[in-house]
Amino acid sequence: MTVLKTSMRNFFAHKGRMALSAVAVVLSVAFVCGTLVFSDTMSTTFDKLFAATSADVTVTPKSAEDAGDAPRSGKPESMPASVVQEARKAEGVKSAEGAVMSQSVTVVDSENKNMGPTSGGPTIAGNWTHNDLRSMDITSGHSPRGPTEMMIDADTADKHDLKIGDSLRTIAATGDHTAKISGIATFKVTNPGAAIVYFDTPTAQRELLGTTGRFTHVNLTAAAGVSDTELKQDVTAALDKGTYDIKTQKESADDNRKSVSGFLDVMKYAMLGFAGIAFLVGIFLIINTFSMLVAQRTREIGLMRAIGSSRKQVNRSVLVEALLLGVFGSILGVGAGVGLAVGLMKLMSGMGMELSTGDLTVAWTTPVIGMVLGVVVTVLAAYLPARRAGKVSPMAALRDAGTPADGRAGALRAAIGLVLTGAGGFLLYTASQADKASEGSLFLGGGVVLTLVGFVVVGPVLASGVVRVISAVLLRAFGPVGRMAERNALRNPRRTGATGAALMIGLALVACLSVVGSSMVASATDELDKSVGADFIVQPTQPGISITQKAADALGKAEHISHITRYKQINADLTTPAGKTVDGVGMSAADPTYAQDLRRETTAGTLSAAYGKNAMSVGEDFAKKHGLKVGDELKVAFEHGRSAQLKLAAITSDDGSVDNGAMYTNITTLEKYVPADRMPQNDIMFASADKGQQDAAYQSLKDSLAKYPQYKVMDQSDFKQTLKDQVGQMLNMVYGLLGLAIIVAILGVVNTLALSVVERTREIGLMRAIGLSRRQLRRMIRMESVVIALFGALLGLGLGMGWGATAQKLLALEGLKVLEIPWPTIIAVFVGSAFVGLFAALVPAFRAGRMNVLNAIATE
């Protein structure tokens, strides 16, 4: 009880000093809990949607599962309408209804503006059925009654200011269809961001499937007293089990959930990873706080020991303070985490992904995880300072107001740090020499961890040298004030090292990712310059769609064009001359001009020969693995088509990143063996301009696709900029998440300076008494802060560039061979660290300047 009272008294006596450490705990716990609440809410939203939209039992073609939501032909897999009648006759069926649905569509308004989501969600077109009434209500107008009418969802109508009577054009593989809005349907559950349009059944069949009398799935409702499982068994008995896939509502919902689980998991674990980094940085802040509090209470601890307190009691007293800090910070962090999740939901809604606070999900495990993490991390971080406090000798403490230095411990620490750093450096070197990226990545991960831990451990040793160098460059010009700032930073290398290490971690990751991102862009740009010969590239701007035949025909009418190249992909089963069959191989079919548009090196044969009659090419690794050579004949069974005997005319080099390992054949060959209605659409198209007509051809291609906003025409500079923008967006998102760790690190600098000012109160008073002005005092503290921040930045940026350079060596094995150091970013971060130091010193410097000189001198 005495230990608890002492701990409570000390905790509340130093509540101001504990505040910044508490903020670190609050932010770290909030990020973890916010991530869990946000991801659970997203899962709840999708679960409710999938449960509401799934029929009791759904029948789909078996082939639909392999084709996915975006079949290469652009037309969803379908089955004859007779299946509806067969299913309706099954025992236990109350009603059976045929449905049509396609995600390979684009919907535009009269000004050719895309009505689809900007968040990456799908645009879905289909027929209005009774099953849709499970999840939607018609809140305005009526359902479509003929080919000139369509209905849309209320979210899309609100987003684009659409109203009844407006005309929309639906672009599908079968052609374009224009209709007027006859009704608006509102979701009963939250729509995460899909755009949905409905037609009457004959129109949906004709415009989405290209024929009437077929459906993509059949929705079955169970009779009273019949469970979904029983209904599935009855329908399975009535239909051909090998032809159709039959699922209950739960099974359909589970399948749909799996389709988005990958995206949700990536978001969840990425955010948790950054929360872990924030926790790691927070540990340094807590260690520093308790180390300095222990140092300032050395006399108090000595008195406690002198009157009978044991080492364990002193140790326990400090740990109880940490426990109080952890509990207090974690409780606030859990609450802040819920608020953070709501903020993230609002942010996602602003980006086009709708999430409702009505679906806010706080599982009981979330606050438990937050509390356990916050408390455990805080107590563990305080363990070393508590152990150090317990070792304080009563007589030594009463003689001196500081904890005695342990030279042997410092030497041991330096030795361990050097060993860890050396081992990490060796692993990084081993990773850079690896022959396979998969093998090297393991060494890279080990090297990153060991060098990081090594730099943290050896930080106090490095501080002595690095701070002197930084001070010589920056502080000597400020005379005595600059020298005092340098000595203050060097006074306690352990404290300076720990404070700098907190900033080092975040900046090391920033530097590493900047190097990797810049190298990826530079490598891709270099590869494009070497490999791509086409002047223009045309590709879709939204996932799940291909270039329709009407759009391809429009491109073919563009002026000032020397040639246009079509490029399709299809799956096939390959049988080698040795009789071995390789299933599901992806093949690329293109026009012969593709050999001009993409300069592929060959190890045998010529690429142009692969576009000859009944000819093909394979990649170098595939040829070696199966013992193939030019002149061999392979049996190729095309998906949805017939088998062909194709002659191997070329073996392409796998030394590159564009189309690495691709197998090519002529589109004419593909058309010979695959029916026209099963032909895949173009994934991408290339074009080259007539000599001297680059600008005119560029504009002509754009004009030809004016009616199709889902496609983008790019010249090579546009394409390079697109790559750069995509990498930049990814890095900006990562930098934003790392910002939390950097904020915690800044709090660490503030805390260190604030406690340092308290520790040096008497010294500050004496300096003021002998003539140091308030302005000089504040400048001294600001300079000390800048030096500490630059020390952490120098270590972090150097370490991060080393990690990034090693990672690039592994990327080079995948064809990304250019190492580029983004010096503008590195320099900007380094200079920005100086401003971080200035900002962190504002409050401590202001408080130091306001000290009463006489009271400060009288302080013990």
UniProtKB/TrEMBL annotation:
GO cellular component, one term: plasma membrane
Compositional bias per record (Polar residues), positions renumbered to this chain: 101-127
Annotated InterPro entries: ABC3_permease_C, MacB_PCD, Macrolide_Exporter_MacB
A single MF term (Gene Ontology): transmembrane transporter activity
Annotated region (Disordered), positions in chain: 60-127
Superkingdom assignment: Bacteria
Membrane topology term: Multi-pass membrane protein
Subcellular location as annotated: Cell membrane
Keyword Membrane: yes
Domain MacB-like periplasmic core: 19-237, 499-702
Protein name: Putative ABC transporter integral membrane protein
Species this protein is from: Streptomyces formicae
